[in-house]
Amino acid sequence: MNNDLEALLALQADDVVIHGLDARLESLEPRIRELDLRRARLTDALARSASAVADEEKKQAWVRDKIAEHKALIERNASQLDAVTNMKMATAATAQMDQAKAIVVAEEGDLVVINRKLDELRAVLDTQQRELATLAAAQEAVRGEVAAERAEIDGALAVARASRARAAEAVPASLRSKYDRIRVRRQPEAVFAMNGYCCGACDTAIPMQRRHSMSTTGAIDVCEGCGVLMYFPS
Ligand SMILES: [Zn+2]
């Protein structure tokens, strides 16, 4: 294997390592985003539940007030009844009282329904609050893991980039710029060993003349099929 090829393959080996590390870095983001999304959804649901509880509590307070109001009215009617002296007034007061009692019965029925609904809504809210606490703890743990992983990858990247810089120096400038240009559109590898008589990347057959020159001089050539750099494996 000639020296240029050896240097080029060393450079590519470093680039493949860097490419893998970059991919690992990119895969960290979705892990955090996923949890953020779940948390936002849960927070929204929780806000809706809290507002439903507040609405129902308002209804409950309103019905309780009404019941107290109507019970007071009944008491007033009862004391008026004690004070009345004629039958006509007594009948009227009794009728009024009966009406108020019927209203209270209906309102107490409403209150039972409201209380039951409120219990259910509060149970939902409670569950959601516990879920959110669990999710927040999980999120904290994942953030910690991701931060540790990112630090590790950053460290490895620094080492790989330093190694790449050294490897790049050993590759002749014209070959290196050819390689870099190919890598812009082709990741992670731009250099391929020939596979028999064909390009190792796209399988295009290479004419005998070029093949011969590559095998005898160790020249690195560009594939006309897919544009990668090819070499004849020794
Ligand atoms: Zn090719």
Write structural notes for this entry.
With about 230 residues, this protein is mainly alpha-helical. About 80% of the residues lie in helices and about 5% in strands. It is built from four helices and three strands, in the order αααβαββ. Zinc ion binds near residues 199, 201, 204 and 226. Zinc ion binds near residues 204 and 223.
Number of domains: 2
Tally of DSSP helical segments:
4
CATH topology of the largest domain: Helix Hairpins
Largest sheet: 3 strands, mixed
The strand count comes to 3
Poorly predicted ranges: none
Helix % is over 70%
| Mean model confidence by pLDDT | 94
Bound molecules: zinc ion
Strand content: under 5%
**Class by SSE composition:** mainly alpha
Distance between the termini: 6 Å
Radius of gyration: 41 Å
Envelope shape: rod-shaped
